[in-house]
Amino acid sequence: MDKDFYNRSSATQLGWEPSWFGEKDFDERLVRAIKKWQKANGITADGLCGPSTFRRIWTERQADIDEYKPKDLKYSNYLVYNGKFVPIKWDKVVLWSEKAGLSAKSGNYYDYSGKSDRKIRLFINHWDVCLNSRSCNDVLNKRGISVHFLIDNDGTIYQTMDMQHGAWHAGSGAINKASVGVEISNAFYTKHQNWYVKMVMESAQ
Fold it and tell me: The domain containing residue 24 runs over which residues?
């Protein structure tokens, strides 16, 4: 078997990169690196990153995803989609495993760990009716639901899980599986906005 060809095909299908194993190219060095990683993790060391090896390394990376943030790309912050970092032009992004991060509770979303890229077709935002993103995340976890992103009052974006997973936020399983869910910090119902603004202005005087 041509192991270089296999790994290249596997990477195209599953979405991993040689850098996940500390290498740059699909070559014999990568095969050796995969073997070393497999051996250290109790997996048959054949140098091939098939589905089982991919699922293991994907899960390992997710636990401390911020440790794998790229250091040499143009932008300073990233969103994560199926273990891959997507650069964005915003300097206030906090991932779920970072010290100040917020995370969705395990079991409160569709877990698509180690599978091909989820097909995302919809972007759905919600007004959270909470004082801040941290309190919103607590409410979501207690209610057994989830979103991918929480946008706080100061513009900070908290990513609570990899976009590969299907968050439970839209009521319909079909919609959840095909969408990204976002909670925007907003302490009042939009229909009461005029009253809220009036109260804020009066309290500021």
Answer: 3-63
Boundary of a domain, candidates 22, 47, 63: 63
Neighbours of 53 (CB within 10 A): 25
φ, ψ for residue 184 (rounded to 5)? -105, 125
Residue whose entry in the numeric block shows the structure tokens 């804020």: 200
> How many angstroms separate the CA atoms of 182 and 165, rounded?
14
Domain count within the chain: 2
Around Cβ 203, how many Cβ atoms within 10 Å?
Answer: 7
Partners of 183 in beta bridges: 126, 150
pLDDT tens string 23-74: 999 999 999 999 999 999 999 999 999 999 999 999 999 988 988 888 765 5
- Asked whether residue 48 falls in the same domain as residue 144, the answer is no
Same domain, 154 and 103: yes
d(CA 200, CA 197): 5
113 φ, ψ (degrees, to nearest 5): -55, 135
pTM, to two decimals: 0.81
Amino acid residing at 29: R
**Cα gap 197→203, rounded to integer Å:** 10
Same domain flag for 135 and 175: yes
